[in-house]
């Protein structure tokens, strides 16, 4: 029996070859594999009955959405999981699983992996297989301390992912958002904190989530955002955040005092990371994801079918 990821890959390769007319060499280059691998995948697609005269699989719709996302936003890759008629928590788990599978298969020479925080990234870490990647180090991309939702903080996720990989990790011993800018500057001057932030700026791959401060906000749920903060963010035009860094619909950092109190990677620093993988689900985040895409922060997007369609719809009316 093929699992969902294997079926998706077979459908994607078959679609590019039979429908779009790509050569095996072109597909091999896109997927970072050798041409004989593509030849074997095409044969396997026939053997399992996905390819006859036409491509038959429910994944064809999600594969088409992937292609639209890649083309519209110049992404390296997009992964879209089926979500129609599925409960939200199951969708989150499926997106986390797809993110884990994608990371596992596309790490190659990565030695430093940065990870942000959030519930969907926590699902990715839970679903990640146990491997032996002793040369890999996982680094938290922002601070996170306190008693609320410790299990989804970047430090905890870095530790759990490193354990799954049999690698090592760093810890950023600082809150994500400080009470004052002065306190932030004092902490930033500490050697241990600066060393981890420097590691974060030099990761090979960054795993991020995307939040919407106005709808279904985990930041609000765990107490990071108060009503006065939300009011200020609305006025500044913020549509979303990556690691507590807020941006507007064009992906530009908003000039909000919250941004001045965060210990973690800035949006500009995130742009210098070679591969940023966003793992995110939920149609309420469509505008937030679109802002991040407009800002050019993402190379790979892992999301669900309904959210992918909502992003493309939102983009078409801009």
UniProtKB/TrEMBL annotation:
SUPFAM superfamilies: NagB/RpiA/CoA transferase-like. It comes from Bacillus safensis. InterPro entries: Cro/C1-type_HTH, NagB/RpiA_transferase-like, SorC_transcr_regulators, Sugar-bd_dom_put. PANTHER family: SUGAR-BINDING TRANSCRIPTIONAL REGULATOR, TRANSCRIPTIONAL REGULATOR-RELATED. The keyword Thylakoid does not apply. Keywords: DNA-binding, Transcription, Transcription regulation. This is Deoxyribonucleoside regulator. It comes from the Bacteria. Belongs to the SorC transcriptional regulatory family. One of its GO terms (molecular function) is DNA binding.
């Amino acid at each position: 029996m093929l699992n969902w990821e294997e079926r998706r890959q077979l459908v994607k390769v078959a679609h590019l070859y039979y429908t779009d007319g790509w050569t095996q060499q072109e597909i091999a280059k896109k997927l970072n594999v050798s041409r004989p691998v593509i030849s074997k995948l095409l044969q396997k697609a026939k053997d399992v009955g996905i390819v006859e005269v036409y491509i038959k699989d429910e994944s064809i719709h999600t594969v088409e959405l992937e292609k639209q996302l890649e083309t519209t936003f110049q992404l390296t890759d997009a992964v879209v999981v089926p979500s129609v008629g599925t409960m939200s928590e199951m969708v989150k788990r499926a997106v986390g699983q797809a993110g884990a599978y994608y990371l596992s298969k596309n790490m190659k020479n990565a030695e430093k992996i940065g990870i942000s925080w959030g519930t969907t990234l926590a699902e990715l870490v839970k679903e990640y297989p146990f491997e032996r990647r002793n040369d890999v180090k996982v680094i938290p991309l922002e601070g996170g301390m306190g008693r609320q939702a410790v299990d989804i903080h970047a430090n905890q996720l870095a530790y759990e992912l490193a354990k799954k990989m049999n690698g090592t990790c760093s810890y950023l011993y600082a809150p994500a958002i400080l009470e004052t800018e002065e306190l932030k500057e004092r902490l930033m001057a500490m050697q241990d904190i600066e060393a981890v932030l420097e590691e974060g700026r030099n990761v090979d791959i960054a795993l991020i989530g995307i939040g919407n401060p106005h709808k279904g906000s985990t930041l609000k749920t765990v107490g990071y955002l108060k009503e006065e903060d939300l009011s200020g963010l609305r006025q500044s035009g913020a549509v979303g955040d990556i690691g507590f860094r807020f941006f507007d619909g064009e992906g530009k950092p908003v000039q909000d005092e919250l941004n001045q109190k965060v210990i973690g990677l800035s949006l500009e620093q995130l742009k210098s990371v070679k591969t940023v993988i966003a793992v995110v689900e939920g149609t309420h985040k469509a505008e937030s994801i679109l802002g991040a895409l407009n800002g050019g922060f993402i190379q790979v997007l892992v999301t669900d079918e309904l959210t992918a369609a909502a992003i493309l719809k939102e983009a078409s009316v801009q």
